Amino acid sequence: MSTTVSLPEYTEAYQAQQRQQVLDAEVIYEWECVLRSQDKHLMPWFMAGFFTLLYGLFYYLSPYVIFFYMWACSVAIFSPVSYFLFDVDYDYKGQITPKGIIVQKTERVPEIFYKATRGMAYFGIGVCLIAGLMMGPLAFVGAGAFALLSFKMTGFHKQSEVEVFPFSENHHYRLVISKVNDLYQWDIYMFLCDV
User: Which terminus has fewer CB within 10 Å in the chain: N or C?
Assistant: First the structure.
């Protein structure tokens, strides 16, 4: 005689309950590392080479000294921007609890970029007010509607991405180390949860 046990219904409330149990459980093991892609150092060189070719062509076609200054400014601005923003590093924190695994990723972008974004948002608000007073509400029709996004960007700040992987009590887990994806430096591989 076999008995069947009904599984709980997989609803949003059940998922939230499982997630909260993992977050409230005692941490057994915790680790932190910095995730940096292996080819991160190549992006500033690529940007410098791109601007060198672009402004070199401009200088060849019309030899004005202003192109040299524009090249120097472009390389000085876009090399750090490409290093910090285009291929960003992550602070990666993992926690193992008896109920599951918690993974937290935070971008390692310097605070000056967030301050600059908030400053440009306040500037955009000023432009919106002036445009609204001078041209009326038609200033915000079509592409002008993107100017209204500056109101949302005033609260732009660093946020952590938290993922929770609850354990299922009916499964056996094993550790499998696979070197399929060596995207990051220092032999750090992506976390894969395979049941």
Answer: N
Distance of alpha carbon 110 from alpha carbon 80, whole angstroms? 11
Q: Which residues of 101-113 are buried (b: 16+ CB within 10 A; e: fewer)?
A: bbebeeeeeeeeb
Q: Residue 96 forms beta bridges with which residues?
A: 29, 101
Q: Is the pLDDT of residue 194 over 70?
A: no
Where are the domains positioned within the chain? 26-108+168-195, 110-157
pLDDT digits (tens, 9 = 90+) for 141-161: 776 777 777 888 888 888 888
Give start and end residues of each alpha helix (H) in the chain.
Answer: 12-24, 42-61, 66-81, 111-135
Distance of alpha carbon 4 from alpha carbon 51, whole angstroms: 68
Sign of CA dihedral 66, 68, 73, 78: positive
